[in-house]
Amino acid sequence: MSNVDLKNKTILVTGAAGFIGGYLAQRLLDEVESVKVIGIDNMNGYYDVSLKNFRLKKLTSYSTFTFIKGNIADKGLIISLFEQYKPQVVVNLAAQAGVRYSITNPDAYVESNLIGFFNILEACRNYPVEHLVYASSSSVYGSNKKVPYSIYDKVDNPVSLYAATKKSNELMAHAYSKLYNIPSTGLRFFTVYGPAGRPDMAYFGFTNKLREGKTIQIFNYGNCKRDFTYVDDIVEGVIRVMQKAPDRATGEDGLPLPPYAVYNIGNNSPENLLEFVDILQQELVRAGVLPEDYDFEAHKELVPMQPGDVPITYADTTVLERDFGFKPSTSLRDGLRKFAEWYKEFYI
Asked: Which residues are catalytic?
């Protein structure tokens, strides 16, 4: 692996007003000496834009942060952005997220996750970068039965278009790494949660519904398990990965051996959804989001599995630990406590 010193560098973060992008950009600005961060985001209305504005407002207070409102699917914009700022490190977090939304709005996924990512790859080819890091997803494991999921498992059974686009990103990055010697690392994130997160995620949606006195639906009759990963752990992982790019080397055919890697970033401890909801309830009461006498049982409904969902996500993180000496470690209770306290402050 080649070391990439982030000091004095220009780093492009796509999806900078998004959940992970906002946290990552802020940490880079806080901790990396003389760094310049260029953020791009299309600020779309897939979920409450006030959250994106909340994250962005923090970033725009830094003089070394530049924000561009735009779409990565706009090739001309991306090329001119690389031409003007010449980023040395690129972190592609812009994507249309969500499994269920991909069933009703497939076009959004093709535009952002395929065309958008292709534009980033083309820009990295024409304006060479030291390292391209991009978000993949645990959803690429699809209907795999073997757990925990290892990066060495075959991932040829996507059960949603979202998953298929993320697998495609890995394939496209591999081809570009081979052809043009672009060091790239894909990160398969596992169910990221935390303060100022995405409202389409279960913990956030449950909280909104419970506050409104509505019933929450727990899929697969509560038998789903998710490897919930706290956002600070994800960002720590991303920053460590950014600083070590896969090595460039030449193969026997005289062409580059692809400087390409993929890692899981997950908590390595799947939680049953019913237990998860139980901890969430306790923390919402503790934070004062819900009254102490709230009748949870009256607001819970166990329902069958949704199309595109999988019964379990569980990350094998041994390769991440081996290469970076790091694995996520925030407990679900600690993470949900921070979320509940933020929610109280932001919404109540």
From this structure: 162
